[in-house]
Amino acid sequence: GFPGILEKEKGSALHYHNEKNSCYWCDEWREAVASKDRVIHESSHFVVFSPKACRWSYEVVLVPKNHKPNFGFIDEMEINDLAKVLPGALKAYKDSFDNPDRNYWIHTMRYEPYHWHIGFIPHLKVFGALELGAGIWVSDKATPEDSGKKLSAAFPVI
User: Fold this and answer.
1) DSSP, res 156
2) Count of the separate structural domains present in the chain
3) How far is CA 11 from CA 47, 106, 148, in A?
4) What is the pLDDT of residues 90-102, one digit of tens each?
5) What separation in angstroms does the CA of 14 have from each of 20, 22, 72, 111, 112?
6) Taking the model in full, what pTM does it have?
7) At 110, is the secondary structure helix, strand, or coil?
8) Domain CATH number, residue 77
9) 88: domain range?
10) Which of 24, 79, 90, 152 is geometrically suited to a Cys-Cys bond with 16, CB 3.0 to 4.6 A?
11) Can you list the residues of the chain whose pLDDT is less than 70?
């Protein structure tokens, strides 16, 4: 099987696709772009935005506009665009929060209807009993709209 979160994401992608005949991340990035308030940066191939359902304050995802299940399937134009957008996302965190520790990870698999994406979180708070003991994530500092506004202002011009 798949490790933890990927197994859940695979199941969620299949469930969403079966219910809506669509891809969750395709729908999510389009909704973010339409509303504009959660978008940090949009390029020709990618959208960087704060998802509606964040587990952490200032959590961000980088989603390719072209639906592909696997990161390894991106073409040369997407690679060149990603080479600009990815450092821009990291710089937005650096400039917004005095260079915080942060993590980012690529979620990818070979199965449709999955949509690969990159997740980002800055380490801005100490996790408490709810997060560590019960697995209940408390996002207590910012809404997705707050994240979009603050981080888009710090995203460099590319």
Assistant:
1) P
2) 1
3) 24, 17, 28
4) 999 999 999 999 9
5) 10, 10, 21, 10, 8
6) 0.90
7) coil
8) 3.30.428.10
9) 4-154
10) 24
11) 1-2, 139
